[in-house]
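ARCHIVE CARD
CATEGORY: sequence design from structure
SOURCE FIELD: tokenized fold
FIELD CONTENT:
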């Protein structure tokens, strides 16, 4: 019976491809679901500020090519700034924006808007894979109040307590408001994996540990990621890569090697239907990498 159902589903998918011309990946009915978190930098390599229409489209297409090469099914995009429609069209993806900054791109249709908090900071969507697996995906951006991960001298003479204090209670208030909204919005969803991903402009309390003191020089219980953990979300990248490797892990910044290299972009998840089986930092593409952030790709599958 199981084999018959598989053949029936395969026949339906093949018919949909032939009739509708919809690109269907061969393994998506039972395979992994790939989620990408990426701040593309002002619409993609600063396409937002590009005066040449041809150059603007070229930059947007390079972002699309990087996403296509990653194999991502769903993208939590930050700094979209007018480029989302072009990028989604290049990929054949559905596009779900909110405001100018954050957006969601999906290989599969958006079933429902799940947005919470402020439009510039958070957009949410319910995505359903062809086999019925559901993801409540949130793309977020958390503001920053202190330059603790760019200026190489920003931490000189400062204690962990100083850094935590300057990281800002406003940022904790912001992320807590988003998470409270997400929890309320998704409470009625059954068998759905909740994903909160994007640019948190924050270091991780899972990186600045005693075991990694030789890499970071400090042990810091960074409050933003700590707040996410206390809300029951887990850091997919760190679960898949438990050993801290600052060079391999960093997402800021492939374009600014003179600045502090840190992991500030995350994919967090909650739920038992799916679990991460691999997570990778991506900062390479043909030609110049089109962002000042690396991307984080997580592959989810049944646990």
């Amino acid at each position: 019976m199981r084999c018959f159902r598989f053949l029936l589903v395969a026949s339906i998918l093949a018919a949909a491809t032939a009739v509708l011309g919809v690109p269907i990946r061969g393994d998506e009915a039972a395979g992994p679901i790939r989620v990408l978190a990426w701040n593309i930098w002002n619409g993609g390599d600063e396409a937002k500020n590009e005066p040449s229409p041809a150059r603007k489209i070229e930059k947007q297409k390079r972002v699309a090519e990087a996403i296509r090469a990653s194999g991502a099914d769903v993208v939590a995009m930050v700094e979209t700034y007018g480029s989302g429609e072009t990028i989604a069209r290049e990929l054949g993806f559905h596009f779900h924006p909110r405001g100018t900054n954050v957006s969601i791109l999906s290989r599969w249709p958006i079933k429902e808007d799940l947005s919470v908090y402020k439009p510039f900071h958070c957009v949410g969507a319910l995505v359903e894979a062809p086999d019925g697996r559901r993801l409540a995906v949130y793309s977020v951006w958390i503001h920053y109040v202190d330059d603790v991960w760019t200026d190489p001298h920003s931490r000189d003479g400062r204690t962990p307590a100083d850094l935590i204090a300057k990281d800002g209670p406003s940022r904790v208030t912001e992320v807590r408001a988003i998470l409270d909204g997400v929890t309320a919005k998704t409470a009625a969803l059954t068998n759905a994996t909740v994903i909160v991903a994007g640019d948190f402009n924050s270091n991780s309390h899972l990186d600045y540990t005693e075991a990694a003191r030789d890499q970071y020089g400090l042990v810091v219980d960074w409050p933003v990621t700590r707040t996410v953990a206390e809300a029951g979300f887990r850091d997919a990248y760190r679960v898949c890569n438990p050993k801290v490797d600052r060079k391999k892990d960093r997402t800021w910044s492939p374009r600014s090697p003179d600045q502090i290299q840190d992991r500030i972009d995350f994919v967090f998840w909650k739920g038992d239907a799916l679990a991460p089986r691999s997570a990778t930092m991506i900062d390479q593409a043909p030609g110049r990498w089109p962002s000042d952030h690396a991307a984080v790709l997580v592959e989810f599958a049944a646990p």
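CARD ANNOTATION: Confidence is low (pLDDT under 50) at residues 1-28. The chain has one domain: 20-301.
SHELF: design records, drawer C
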